[in-house]
Amino acid sequence: MAADAYLMSLRRFIARQGTMAELWSAQGTNFKGELQEAFANMSSVQANRRTIGGYFLAGRSMTWWPIGASLMSSNVGSGLFIGLAGTGAAGGIAVGGFEWNAAWVLVALGWIFIPVYISAGVLTMPEYLAKRFGGKRIRMYMSVLSLILYVFTKISTDIFSGALFIQVSLGWDLYLSTGTLLLVTATYTVAGGLAAVIYTDALQTLIMVGGALALMFIAFSKVGWYEGLVNHYMSAIPSVTVTNATCHLPRNDAFRMFRDPMSGDLPWPGLVFGLTVLATWVWCTDQVIVQRSLSAKSLSHAKGGSVLGGYLKLLPMFFIVMPGMISRALFPDEVGCVDPVVCQRICGASVGCSNIAYPKLVIELMPVGLRGLMLAVMLAALMSSLTSIFNSSSTLFTLDLYHRARPKASERELMIVGRVFILVLVCISLLWIPVIQTANSGQLFDYIQSVTSFLAPPITAVFLMAIFWTRANEQGAFWGLMTGLVVGLLRMILEFSYIPPSCGQPDRRPAVLANVHYLYFALILMALTCLIIVAVSLATPPIPKEHLYRLTWWSRYSQEHRIDLAGTWIASDSVNSDINSHFDHSPDSWLWRAVLRLCGLTGPSSGSTPPVAENSELNSLQEEPLWRRVCNVNALLLLAVNVFLWGYFA
């Protein structure tokens, strides 16, 4: 169905090509720039993309600044632009705490988690759990769950929000615009590997920040800067309201970060502690993020990337959340609508139209040229996020699932499979567009975070126990994950079975839904998982210490020889040959040669990739004293600035 719709859209587009000429001349330049940028990266970034380590970890040669920029752009996709601005328009600045919390967890990534991952010598997060606990079932479960989360939360929400922006801003057909973006994005991800993705992310971060800052200044000038925003937002009431209801009024605590622990839409204990559970999964255990830090040429560069990413994550409050609030202040009848009939007419969603806050601001405030710039910003956000997810999903599938099924697969075969899987993800994404289109909701950001709170806390618990508690074993970790999954799925089923009431309607949901915020549920679920891990681990034999060297925080500097647990399958130890060994002959077909060249499987050899030996330079935690001090000072400065901002807006 999606394929037919895409072809029909293409025919309609060609038929009206003449009428689109003016639109292209005014705004298409930026889209053309995005295409040129994509193919430039595809052709110019060639670093070690002919080996598994080169393609999936950029040869472990990345420096701090592209890592930090990639951490930012990998997380700030089009879904975050639409979701953060929409939630800010609906409820105020508290949602910005999701961004500020990231600074603390990014420091934890660079100073706690990455040293353990480097000393363990792993390529993927499921591989770390396989080394730490042994066996196969935890690794398989983690890989499958991660892919499910990527497809149904990250990819789907990014596609929906990016398509929503393009559709609202330019009136382009949904299938044509998203299909083209997905194909272009997949092309340079397939061709370039992680190095291309990281350098592209770094450039697109500049586009995102620059364009968003331009809109921020224009928007603030319209309302009289911050004081004007406070006055205009608190009086932003739609002309059509619901009888005997107050939900059309802006929240009294709209400009406070810390809100009532019981009645607040984002209660402060949940925002501080429950959010940290979700953020730890996102920033410290999720393959999309951790893969960037693992590509660093040294631990100091990984730390520097975390610090830069933390500074960049301070900005979305000011160039996404507050502009969303300005959009409601300027357009209360559209962005702040509460009447279901009116909302359905404006944005096609009866529950509210806060999701259109950011694109509405772009359309109404920016001149034609800058409107094209903001189109480029959203395209950059969408493509950066999707390339990151495509590459990391390919890594998980190839090294944790496919290579497990075919342990004797050559590196050539694994490289081809990794690229083909990206194309499979593109097809799934295209087929998912109609589902996202019909599931349009006024609370996109809440959807993303609530689904994460149902599935991610058990993962956070297992990683924390694996790193800090040597007594944790495979049985405890597995049954902790299973218990957490069952409880989380039960809450998720209930959540989607009972729709939240519209404005003016009574809340008939069960108390566990109406009174237990999803951030509180994340805390409860993590605590339950930890209890199961502790109970089962203490009731079963411990893992001998010779299997744990350099796999925990306490043994990360150990020089002892580690013995892998029986039944452990390690991808990084079994995929080490250079692709040249599999290319002693040239294929006869020119088409086949072109495909191999696109995938980086032909051309001059850059040298083989030897196995990562124990205590080798690649998994060394040694740092130059000067740069270690520089990183430590900058991390403390980042946290000090973060505390000041929390206190100022508390």
Automatic annotation (TrEMBL):
Residue spans crossing the bilayer: 80-98, 104-123, 144-168, 174-199, 206-225, 266-284, 305-326, 373-402, 414-435, 447-469, 476-498, 518-540, 630-649
GO cellular component: plasma membrane
Domain of life assignment: Eukaryota
Predominant location category: membrane
Topology class, membrane: Multi-pass membrane protein
PROSITE patterns: NA_SOLUT_SYMP_1 (PS00456), NA_SOLUT_SYMP_2 (PS00457), NA_SOLUT_SYMP_3 (PS50283)
Localization, UniProt: Membrane
MF terms (GO), sorted A to Z: D-glucose:sodium symporter activity
Matching InterPro entries: Na/Glc_symporter_sf, Na/solute_symporter, Na/solute_symporter_CS
Keywords carried by this UniProt record: Glycoprotein, Ion transport, Membrane, Sodium, Sodium transport, Transmembrane, Transmembrane helix, Transport
Homology family: Belongs to the sodium:solute symporter (SSF) (TC 2.A.21) family.
PANTHER family membership: SODIUM_GLUCOSE COTRANSPORTER 4 (PTHR11819:SF96), SOLUTE CARRIER FAMILY 5 (PTHR11819)
Protein name: Solute carrier family 5 member 9
Biological source species: Mastacembelus armatus (zig-zag eel)
